[in-house]
Design a protein that fits this description.
Length: 255
């Protein structure tokens, strides 16, 4: 059972011209309903009031009938750091999130996808641009843990972040080949049952990246090369294709 819980909050001092704000720690779990056992490896990410507000407004626009019984705390000018206000907001946020947990249409809405992935994706992209590949990888791993609990194993959003993790190895010039190998193996397994044409456009760059990782680590790449040749015989373009990161960026633009 998908479960959302606000487990803590903290006041964050703003940097540059940004004002201080409250960060809410969101825990995402897949709890066992039969044995009443909590997920032993939950995902934990921070979100601000504005993130929840954007989520609510987006869902209200796309699925208004499903949110009829949800009341969302209004934005205020002063008193944002009052403990009672923070507590009431946590309760409201959890009500919205647990409705999302029970309604697949809400989870698939663009506003929900943005809420669950955009914060970490933005941070990871910035770190990648700065050449901080280890830090970017860590953030993407956290993002995968969260998204993999909210969505199915082979959903577009999950495969997207999984392939982005693998792409870190390529972006790092092979420096992350070792840490990324397990993720590359998982991505290849996940793709075994994928048939969507747009997702398959990522598959070929994924194979190229995995071949590069295997070469760096001295692994046998023959099966991956055979798979590429098989796709070539089927008439698919397997040479001069975008990098895996570029291919994932293109897919994300359509999600």
């Amino acid at each position: 059972m998908l479960k959302f819980e606000i487990v803590s909050s903290r006041t964050v001092e703003g940097v540059d011209k940004e004002k201080k704000f409250v960060a809410y720690m969101l825990q995402v779990r897949q709890d066992s309903t039969e044995s009443r056992v909590f997920d032993p490896d939950p995902a934990n990410v921070e979100r601000r009031y504005t993130h929840f507000l954007d989520l609510y407004n987006g869902l209200k626009k796309d699925c208004p009938s499903l949110l009829n019984n949800i009341s969302f705390p209004r934005k205020i000018v002063v008193g944002n750091f009052d403990p009672n206000l923070i507590s009431s907001r946590c309760t409201a946020f959890e009500s919205l999130l647990n409705l999302i947990a029970s309604e697949s249409r809400l989870r698939e809405a663009p506003a929900a996808i943005s809420f669950f992935q955009d914060v970490e994706l933005k941070d990871a992209r910035k770190l990648l641009d700065e050449g901080k590949f280890d830090q970017a990888l860590s953030i993407l791993e956290t993002s995968f843990k969260l998204l993999n609990k909210v969505y199915t194993d082979r959903s577009r959003v999950v495969l997207s972040v999984l392939c982005r993790i693998v792409a870190c190895a390529g972006s790092s010039g092979g420096a992350l080949a070792g840490p990324v190998e397990k993720w590359a193996q998982l991505a290849l397994r996940r793709y075994e049952a994928v048939s969507d044409s747009d997702l398959l456009l990522i598959y070929i760059p994924l194979l190229h990246t995995c071949i590069s990782i295997w070469e760096t680590l001295g692994r046998d790449k023959s099966k991956l090369v055979e798979e590429l040749n098989s796709l070539r015989k089927k008439g698919m373009k397997v040479d001069s294709v975008p990098s895996l990161m570029e291919a994932v960026d293109s897919l994300d633009a359509t999600i």
